Amino acid sequence: MYFFFSGALLSVSSAQTRQFYFVNTPLNWRDAQSVCRQNYTDLATIENTADVSISNWTVNPRKAWIGLHDDIVNSWRWSLSDSSFYGDGESTYWNWYPGEPNNYDGQQLCVHFYGAVNDLWDNYCSVEYSFVCYTALLQNLYIFLSEW
């Protein structure tokens, strides 16, 4: 996006940062998602190793729901389905524990993060765990490019 101001060209871009919140109230995945969407942005999306470190810090050594789930149609996806939110490769960063996901009984469609080992595990969505939410914060950056 560009704006023209009396002889100057100004570029506006947005940078997104996330703040994570550990909620120490055991709920099933759907209820946890609902709480996160009502009070924050959504269940946590882990996009890279930095997010794993942050999530581990908030969860360690507990198990906690995050936003990854299997919607059966498109396979594994994050709770926040807005594809414009993700950068290159970020929507497919999944650090599975060895042997996971195993979709035991064909019913393990939700994912929890296990802080003790920094890995993801699939599980039944009805199990109650604490959970990690996040708030997305947009920051506009204004960059002066040139004069006319």
UniProtKB/TrEMBL annotation:
Residues in domain C-type lectin?
Answer: 15-134
InterPro entries noted in UniProt: C-type_lectin-like, C-type_lectin-like/link_sf, C-type_lectin_CS, CTDL_fold
Per its UniProt record, what Gene3D superfamilies does this chain match? Mannose-Binding Protein A, subunit A
Q: Residues of the signal sequence?
A: 1-15
Keywords from UniProt, A to Z, are:
Disulfide bond, Signal
Taxonomy, superkingdom: Eukaryota
Enumerate the Pfam families for this protein. Answer: Lectin_C
User: Which protein is depicted?
Assistant: C-type lectin domain-containing protein
